[in-house]
Write a structure and sequence with these properties.
alpha/beta, binds ligand LLP, about 400 residues, nine-stranded mixed β-sheet
Length: about 400
């Protein structure tokens, strides 16, 4: 656990805005999964899209994690960092022929989520080993935009098309070594995970798919974002998951690998964005705390109305008041929190935005031409890595390709 005093120290040393990642917490979460899901053949493939910080990825690699990659760029990064191709699954959607070809050549397992792509694969890569992604037909997630099962989603092959998929695969002698589903991000109900597992396992019969080596049940494990949000009982859930999968393997007649692909669960809580307040102003009844970061650097509140806890690091005991915590971008919606009760904020106070480890830096942009913040990784209690922000000049040089 990084203390608030340490966060202040890091901010003073490296400047703000600053992303700080607690790699020890990330590893604790990684190990938690093996405790919660006591299946002998459990593989965790970290969803790299959540946070691609190379130091964090290296630490996960050393812990034995695999990777869930969703673009050729993510595959290249994972390979460059020394993840073995067989530890990587590529689950892109709407990929081009050229992208598909590039990834097939790396030896990474490709996860195909449409009959169209499957036909092209059967025609052009006879004998290939592939995984098939199905739509689990379960709707869940912390937001409509992050639900990936059910009627409204673009992802996966319909469960009712399983026979058709098999026929197409056979036409190219494809080896279907894995089946996959991903229900959504921030799954609210433990039952959804179990229901999606049931639905995928129902089509995973030996008669239809006789060469399976693994079933991959995606990511989506939720962590609390709000102060009073309860933590899901993952011990109970993991037990149910394990029993279900063991039963399936018995029926199937083979001990398959069980895979999950968590992003948020591993990285959300380990990240904190520290920013400095530079302006306190009033718009009639509203008090605005203006900070030196903005939504391009942490877009979840604006994009999903997501709630991120905020702490006043330098005045934790101040009198509680209501604030609009705003950024430095030229848009009215540039708010980290609206009418949030926080200990009195003064100019030059440091604010910590919590759960900033997943889908924050990785969804960042340089809108308004503000470079993305520096990042610090703390591991075994020490600063293990520092990635400085680009200067304005460096950013402009990139734009001008100087
Ligand atoms: N596997 C697949 C195929 C996925 O599409 C995703 C997330 C994951 C695994 C990891 O899901 P997680 O464990 O992180 O929930 N930007 C959104 C989340 C988008 C998730 C996209 N896919 C957010 O900030 O809430």
């Amino acid at each position: 656990m990084i203390s608030n005093t340490r966060y202040i120290e890091l901010a003073r040393t490296y400047g703000t805005p600053l992303f700080v990642y607690d790699a020890d917490l990330m590893l604790e979460r990684y190990n938690d999964l093996f405790r919660f899901i006591p299946h002998e053949k459990l593989n965790i493939h970290y969803a790299l899209k959540a946070n691609y910080n190379p130091a964090l990825l290296t630490i996960l690699r050393d812990a034995g994690a695999g990777i869930d990659a969703v673009s050729p760029g993510e595959v290249v990064l994972a390979l460059e960092l020394g993840f073995a191709p067989e530890k990587i699954i590529y689950t892109a959607n709407n990929m081009t022929d050229a992208e598909f070809d590039r990834v097939m050549k790396t030896g990474v397992t490709v996860n195909i989520g449409s009959l169209s792509r499957l036909k092209k694969c059967a025609a052009n890569y006879p004998g290939a080993r592939i995984c098939l992604r199905f739509n689990p037909d379960v709707c869940d997630g912390d937001n409509v935009m992050t639900m990936t099962g059910g009627d409204l989603t673009k992802f996966g092959i319909l469960l009712t098309d399983a026979d058709e998929a098999k026929k197409i695969a056979d036409s190219g002698n494809l080896h279907i070594v894995g089946l996959h589903e991903h229900t959504g991000s921030g799954l609210q109900h433990a039952e959804s995970v179990l229901k999606s597992m049931d639905n995928l396992m129902a089509i995973a019969t030996k008669e239809r798919f006789s060469e399976l080596e693994f079933l991959d049940f995606g990511g989506g494990f939720k962590v609390p974002y709000k102060e009073d949000e309860p933590r899901i009982d993952y011990v109970a859930m993991g037990k149910q998951i394990t029993e279900k999968f063991d039963g399936f393997c018995k029926n199937y007649g083979k001990e398959l690998l069980m895979r999950f692909e968590p992003g948020k669960f591993l990285s959300a809580e380990c990240g904190t964005l520290i920013m400095e307040v530079n302006t306190i102003k009033h718009n009639r009844s509203r008090v605005i705390a203006g900070c030196n970061s903005g939504f391009p650097q942490l877009i979840r509140p604006v994009l999903y109305c997501a709630y991120h806890r905020i702490e006043n690091l330098t005045n934790p005991d101040g009198e509680e008041k209501l604030y609009d915590v705003c950024g430095n971008i030229c848009e009215t919606g540039d708010r980290f929190a609206e009418q949030r009760s926080l200990p009195e904020i003064r100019e030059y106070d440091l604010l910590a935005v919590k759960n900033a480890g997943a889908y924050c830096y990785s969804m960042g942009s340089v809108y308004n031409l503000r470079p993305m913040p520096a990042e610090v990784v703390v591991h075994n209690g020490n600063v293990a890595d520092f990635r400085p922000a680009l200067t304005d000049q460096e950013l402009v040089a990139q734009i001008l390709r100087k």
